[in-house]
Each structure stands twice: as structure tokens, then as C-alpha cells.
Amino acid sequence: MAQFMKELAKHKGKFKIVKSWSSIGCRYSSNLRAGCNPGSACPITKVYASRCGKPVGCRRYLEAAKKMGISQWTADTIARAADAPETSYDLEIRKQMLEVLNLKEIA
Q1: Rounded mean pLDDT, 32-43
Q2: Do residues 66 and 72 touch, judged by C-beta distance below 8 A?
Q3: Does pLDDT of 24 surpass 60?
């Protein structure tokens, strides 16, 4: 996780928090994205694209994580933390990501 956070920090200024409606949870979520819409690159796919030079869609984060040697459990934790934290650990990872990207949570 430390190596991932170090690589993510290289993208300071490229990420935004994008509000979107989640039909699954029937609530708004604050997605951490490198772009202006919920379908833009997520933290995993952005790091993968910069490392490998090949952009992939946000929904392919597990494939990108596997190619970078990140376990599925860790990739799912990062994805939940970026979109809809469910546990205190997810919230801690989200705080770390926001800190390395110099972002503040939106209300």
C-alpha cells in the first residue's frame, strides 16, 4: 500500500472529488477521480496508466491492479475508499489518499 500511495502522490492536482448518485446504495457518493465525471480514471487505473503508459477504463481496476502486483483484496479496499468507504479501514485509506493528493473531503 505504501508504494501505491507514493505513486499516487505523483498525481497531485489531477484528482477531484466528484459527487454521483449510486443506484446500488440509493445515495450520493463522493468519488475520487482523475477527471470531472464518475467514469474518469480511479486511483488504481491512473497509477497503472502512468506506470505502464496504457490507459484503462475505471471498471477495469482489478485487471490493472493485478498487472501491478496488487492483490484483489487491496484493490477492492482502494476502490471502496475512493468511492464509498464502508469500514473504518476504508475511511483511513481514503484519508491517506486525500492527504497525498492534497484534497479535502466535501460535505
Answers
A1: 78
A2: yes
A3: no
The letter for the amino acid at 50 is S
C-alpha cell at 44: 488504481
Rounded to an integer, what distance in angstroms lies between the CA atom of residue 88 and that of residue 1?
16
Nearest to 5, CA basis, from 70, 72, 85, 80: 70
The per-residue pLDDT for range 44-69, each reduced to its tens digit, is 999 999 999 988 887 899 999 999 99
Dihedral pair phi/psi, residue 88, rounded to 5°: -65, -30
Q: What is the crossing angle of helices 43-52 and 72-83, to 10°?
A: 120
Calpha distance 46→14 (Å, rounded):
10
* Residues 72-94 pLDDT 10s: 999 999 999 998 788 899 999 99
Composition of the chain by helix, strand, coil, percent to 5: 50, 15, 35
The size of the chain, in residues, is 107
With beta carbons less than 8 A apart as the criterion, state whether 4 and 70 touch.
yes
